[in-house]
């Protein structure tokens, strides 16, 4: 997923078979044909710019050897953020731009005066059109260059006359993190290649009994993805709101979501149509939600520490059945037992509570010196498994940006997945134990092949 936050961050490799772009502190090489990816790790902070040499062998300061997928050289001269990079046509020189700009939005073409060892600028004429330019790319024949802008359109400028040739496509007011393929001659002729969330992905959900689709949530929206192709099939937008958590009904007929405006929203998974809104569900935002297996009740947790049980009524009506208050801080996760008679909640107050959903009372309290982030029942439902900020007990992902698979009885790591460059925010395993989906704070969504056969899980 390309986040779109890095100016000039998306590059086409000269072999025309790969895309090169950063995600957090990782550089990703993506094959255009089948979508396969390779991850380059070496930076200790977020990558701020990317350049690819004309031969296609190197990419970025770290300079990478493209063929070997390894570090070729490190150039450590800039004291602050590197703003831009560019290779000379013969690959002999690399130009880097550092430091803050002067606040000017002018567009200039610089010519080299080799005898006098000078570079001389000429202003480009864009008439009354005013844009903030974030990236520039020159055509192979040196006739035109193209400028990307913060408003989402592209300027095509004649390199010889310095005059604006065309501007397009028509600006879209919605700022989505999309990747397009454009025609040089007609900027209105474009094709969507891929899309992604524009901010941290906070949760993921996989339908029960299926691994073909999964859903993720972030600021402003929920998205449903096709697992095999990684293509977005549905986008549900709630502008200026953040979806903190989501769950998919066992029968697959609805998507349950928790929002920071204190509302619970239920959507149809095929059309994105709103089916139910529970207003004022929690006073400090809804932070966790879960369906019961019989699809008749909704459980919700809030920033104030309450657990609430809601009953669904005909025609998507609802009523509040019970409010239980034991947690002293945010409820971060809810897991319902398979018989719907019990659930467990995790909280940032350092407590996990097992609740009786028949008599609506606390059954058991577990305390630890940690901020619990998630909790799950063991498949036999005789134990619970937790993860928290102390990185103890069991964790399939965390602040170390690694995805780990552990044996349950021995507590040994069997596999480590490297790919995320931000804090891992959720891990979901499909019910057939074949596919693992992880999300992170840098906006990345990664799909993994689960390393253990279903028969041994």
List keywords for this structure.
single chain, 457 residues, mainly beta, 7-stranded antiparallel sheet, 4-stranded antiparallel sheet, elongated
Short description:
The protein is built from no helices and 39 strands. It is mostly beta strands. Strand 20 (219-226) and strand 21 (231-248) form a beta hairpin.
Low-confidence stretches: 393-397
Number of helices: 0
Q: Strand pairing plus helix content: what structural class? A: mainly beta
Main sheet specs? 7 strands, antiparallel
Rg estimate, integer Å: 25 Å
Number-wise, the strands total: 39
What are the SSEs and their pairings?
Layout: E1 11-12, E2 18-23, E3 26-31, E4 37-41, E5 58-59, E6 63-65, E7 70-73, E8 82-87, E9 94-98, E10 108-113, E11 118-123, E12 133-138, E13 144-149, E14 154-158, E15 164-168, E16 177-182, E17 190-196, E18 203-205, E19 213-217, E20 219-226, E21 231-248, E22 255-259, E23 264-267, E24 274-278, E25 286-291, E26 297-302, E27 306-313, E28 317-325, E29 331-336, E30 342-347, E31 351-356, E32 361-367, E33 372-377, E34 384-388, E35 402-406, E36 413-418, E37 424-429, E38 435-440, E39 445-449
Antiparallel strand pairs: 1-2, 2-3, 3-4, 5-6, 6-7, 8-9, 10-11, 12-13, 13-14, 14-15, 16-17, 18-19, 19-20, 20-21, 21-22, 22-23, 23-24, 25-26, 26-27, 27-28, 29-30, 30-31, 31-32, 33-34, 35-36, 37-38, 38-39
